């Protein structure tokens, strides 16, 4: 499809989207393409780090899992429920089906697809050549893929998880699920969660630091805002889930007592840790969908977005508020009335920012003139279905109403309206919208309309009756029902609706295949889009931008005659980057708020080590699965070796003098040996991840502490304060030595800092050995009581952080002796010092908790 003559007045179509290529562009384009392209062949694909490659892989793998775990499972379940007392599947298989359906959808489908969208599109949207950590992006994909395959391998052993996607204890504990089925759930999905967090770090730094000059935060595309908020939410939501999964696996595999009330544990602790993830997860899925809608809608109605600032504020508001209502799912667990009132209010208040977005989009539609393309149809379908789901969400936020419909099919209907209307429809809109850019071909509009109407009708036919049958008393998660209940007619309607949905998905798949093979050429901007991605060729080149753009508007292609021109200094800089450097992958870093050029740095080249590190991660989880625990140690060594290899200093492809020549010409630092700015952000987010994990363990500690009258219980000695104080002194001393080394290398280059790094390494190793001996010398074990369980686990976490610091410092000392660091190139030393500073604070708080926790009343 192309725009007709009636569309010629669309803003931006009457002027060029970008300036004509310069002679320098044409001469250097081929050289840049060669530098930025991933290597060919299978070996090259295993080493690939390009953002378009990684983004497409994430999306395609997510779509594969949705067909496998979303469509097939739902068809079987709905067929089983179409008639009373059906015998298509038995209760055990039905439990496995709904567990798999929920788990795959929530962990392996929606979020990977959105992270794939982000990694694929953000460099084009932001005017950058690449994401900040290409190897981390590759690691994110491999862990997601291998984790999903590990989870699905349960089918090969006939050990499919059957405790629901929420895995409530004690049902998921060793007493009621003694086989390995739940271990596949915990460990397989745990690997995928690691990948989600890695991608989130990549997205945060990419949005905040790799933007075109002039693209201030107030000019940021709304999809980028949505992904930025989502990525922070992933860090704060998935980390407690990883900690909760760790505690559950320790109970299952090592005999700890975190969730055993008879030994001081609490089954509700799992629910708190899980729903701290589980309810924000709904908004983690909604916000990227809202970002897609915010990109598609103004283009399809030929009008700038109304209420941009309000939409951004609502996204941030949702991101914050979503963490204040996890107990919304625990209204029936016996929480105090005051707590119920707080979470009920929070559950209702969060509808306000969502409503702000709806009103902004409706206002934009009213102010413009709609083009009824397939992407716009899916946007309109989203508005209708999501509003219905939002209304029922406010209903279940009321405690009295929730007590009546909790665990009924009313909740199933509500959930699917929110997830399919609020998430799936925008995904289809985004695929149709950006397909021409990614492939250079248009999708078939006739087939697109057919798939939309099949999906729109199917969703409403399938899930609206569930609200009614839920109000009639039909509980969720039952595999059959008696005929006299009178639920048959509504269940038949719902089953027919699911068949219609599957037909719509089939048409979509056919449209994708047909368009990829035979679709008409799209051109660079078939929709008359306003954002930067529509200024590059379709499909984009590997390096994206030969001349980086300069932004002066929220709608650069509608408002700017030439997106490569700005003030004199910036224009000279972006034109200079089209001519130099041409031997390494150079990316421009800009200021977080003002988007002024800050630095040019070298992003990582293709590497096999992210795949090796992902294999090491899976080996740890798989070794625990089969209880071959020496394999976990081997996996840890593989991860350590891989991370060292992919971060090891390499000889820069240019001299310091060449860097300074460009710096003098354009007034911007050049770091071919690694970015101080980007590495600082990366390490800061790593510390944030560790801090959230640590806070989750503290939550578990004090939750159990307050739930037990005797802490520690009778017969268990008080902790050894002297050993904890010695460990504190060693950790602080190691941190101080590394910071002195960093100060010396900054001030004096290589003349006097190596000894301090060696000292920091020795003290760090001594601290790790001391902590290891302390844990192994404890007079109580981790299996008798929850006190011992949490003490050993928290102390083990602190030990792991110190071991990581000791390994980092040892490698810094080795690389320093080899002459890799100077006062101009010392990024790894800075990162190591930052790690030790953070671990010192965490250790002091952790040691105080372990030592003084028993005496706190």
Automatic annotation (TrEMBL):
Gene3D superfamilies: Cytochrome c oxidase, subunit III, four-helix bundle (1.20.120.80), Cytochrome c oxidase-like, subunit I domain (1.20.210.10). NCBIfam families: CtaD_CoxA (TIGR02891). It is an enzyme of class 7 (translocase). It is found in: Cell membrane. PANTHER family: CYTOCHROME BO(3) UBIQUINOL OXIDASE SUBUNIT 1 (PTHR10422:SF35), CYTOCHROME C OXIDASE SUBUNIT 1 (PTHR10422). Pathway: Energy metabolism; oxidative phosphorylation. This is cytochrome-c oxidase. Keywords: Cell membrane, Copper, Electron transport, Heme, Iron, Membrane, Metal-binding, Respiratory chain, Translocase, Transmembrane, Transmembrane helix, Transport. It catalyses: 4 Fe(II)-[cytochrome c] + O2 + 8 H(+)(in) = 4 Fe(III)-[cytochrome c] + 2 H2O + 4 H(+)(out). GO terms for cellular component: plasma membrane. Residues 1-17 have a biased composition (Basic and acidic residues). GO terms for biological process: electron transport coupled proton transport; oxidative phosphorylation; respiratory electron transport chain. It comes from Euzebya pacifica.
């Amino acid at each position: 499809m192309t725009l007709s003559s009636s569309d010629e007045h669309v803003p931006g179509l009457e002027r060029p989207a970008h300036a004509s290529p310069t002679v320098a562009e044409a001469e250097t384009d081929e050289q840049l393409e060669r530098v930025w392209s991933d290597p060919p062949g299978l070996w090259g694909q295993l080493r690939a780090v390009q953002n378009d490659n990684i983004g497409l892989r994430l999306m395609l793998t997510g779509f594969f899992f949705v067909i496998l775990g979303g469509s097939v499972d739902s068809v079987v379940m709905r067929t089983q429920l179409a008639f009373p007392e059906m015998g298509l599947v038995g209760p055990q298989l039905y439990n496995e089906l709904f567990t798999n359906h929920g788990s795959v959808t929530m962990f392996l489908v929606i979020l990977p697809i959105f992270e794939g969208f982000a990694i694929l599109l953000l460099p084009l949207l932001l005017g950058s050549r690449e994401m900040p950590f290409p190897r981390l992006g590759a690691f994110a994909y491999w862990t997601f893929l291998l984790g999903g395959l590990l989870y699905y391998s349960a089918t090969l052993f006939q050990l499919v998880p059957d405790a629901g996607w929420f895995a409530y204890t004690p049902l998921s504990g060793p007493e009621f699920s003694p086989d390995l089925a739940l271990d596949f759930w915990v460990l397989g999905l745990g690997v995928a969660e690691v990948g989600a967090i890695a991608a989130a770090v990549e997205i945060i730094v990419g949005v905040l630091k790799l933007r075109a000059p002039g693209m201030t935060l107030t000019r940021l595309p709304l999809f980028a805002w949505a992904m930025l908020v989502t990525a922070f939410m992933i860090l704060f939501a998935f980390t407690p889930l990883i900690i909760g999964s760790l505690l559950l696996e320790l109970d299952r595999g090592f005999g700890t007592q975190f969730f055993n009330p008879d030994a001081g544990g609490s089954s509700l602790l799992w629910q708190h840790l899980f729903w701290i993830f589980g309810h924000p997860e709904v908004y983690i899925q909604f916000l990227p969908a809202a970002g897609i809608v915010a990109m598609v809608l103004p283009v399809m109605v030929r009008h700038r977005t109304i209420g941009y600032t309000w939409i951004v504020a609502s996204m941030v508001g949702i991101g914050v508020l979503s963490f204040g209502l996890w107990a919304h799912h625990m209204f029936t667990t016996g929480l105090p009335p005051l707590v119920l009132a707080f979470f009920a209010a929070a559950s209702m208040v969060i509808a306000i920012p969502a409503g702000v977005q709806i009103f902004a989009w409706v206002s934009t539609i009213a102010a413009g003139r709609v083009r009824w393309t397939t992407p716009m149809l899916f946007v309109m379908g989203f508005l209708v279905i999501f509003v219905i789901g939002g209304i029922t969400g406010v209903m279940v936020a009321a405690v009295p109403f929730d007590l009546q419909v909790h665990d009924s099919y009313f909740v199933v209907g509500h959930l699917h309206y929110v997830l399919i209307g609020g998430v799936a429809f925008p995904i289809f809109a985004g695929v149709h919208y950006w397909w021409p850019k990614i492939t250079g071909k248009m999708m078939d509009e006739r087939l697109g309309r057919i798939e939309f109407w099949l999906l729109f009708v199917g969703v409403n036919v399938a899930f609206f009756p569930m609200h009614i049958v839920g109000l009639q008393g039909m509980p969720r998660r039952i595999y059959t029902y008696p005929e006299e209940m009178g639920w048959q007619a509504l269940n038949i309607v719902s089953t027919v609706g699911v068949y219609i949905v599957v037909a719509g998905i089939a048409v979509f798949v056919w449209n994708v295949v047909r368009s990829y093979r035979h679709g008409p050429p799209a051109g660079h901007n078939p929709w008359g889009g306003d954002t930067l991605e529509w200024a590059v060729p379709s499909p984009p080149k590997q390096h994206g931008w030969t001349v980086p753009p300069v932004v002066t508007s929220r709608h650069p292609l509608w408002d700017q005659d030439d997106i490569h021109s700005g003030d004199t200094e910036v224009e000279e800089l972006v034109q200079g980057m089209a001519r130099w450097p041409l031997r390494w992958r150079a990316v421009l870093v800009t200021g977080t708020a003002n988007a002024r050029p800050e630095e040019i740095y070298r992003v990582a080249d293709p590497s096999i080590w992210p795949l090796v590190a992902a294999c090491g991660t899976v080996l740890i989880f798989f070794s625990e699965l089969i209880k071959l625990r020496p394999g976990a140690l081997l996996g840890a060594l593989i991860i350590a070796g891989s991370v060292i290899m992919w971060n090891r200093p390499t000889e820069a492809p240019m001299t310091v003098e060449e860097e300074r020549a460009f710096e003098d010409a354009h007034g911007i630092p050049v770091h071919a040996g690694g970015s101080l700015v980007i590495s600082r952000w990366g390490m800061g987010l790593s510390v944030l991840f560790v801090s959230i994990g640590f806070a989750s363990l503290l939550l578990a500690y004090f939750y159990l502490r307050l739930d037990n009258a005797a802490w520690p219980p009778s017969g268990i000695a008080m902790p050894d304060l002297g050993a904890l104080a010695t460990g504190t002194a060693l950790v602080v001393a190691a941190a101080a030595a590394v910071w002195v080394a960093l100060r010396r290398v900054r001030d004096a280059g290589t003349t006097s800092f190596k000894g301090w790094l060696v000292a920091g390494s020795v003290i760090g190793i001594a601290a790790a050995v001391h902590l290891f001996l302390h844990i192994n010398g404890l007079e109580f074990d981790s299996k008798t009581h929850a006190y011992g369980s949490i003490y050993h686990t928290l102390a083990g976490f602190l030990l792991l952080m110190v071991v990581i610091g000791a390994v980092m410092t040892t490698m810094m000392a080795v690389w320093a002796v080899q002459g890799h660091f100077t006062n101009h190139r010392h990024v790894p030393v800075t990162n190591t010092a930052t790690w030790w500073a953070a671990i010192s604070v965490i250790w002091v708080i952790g040691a105080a908790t372990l030592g003084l926790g028993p005496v706190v009343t």
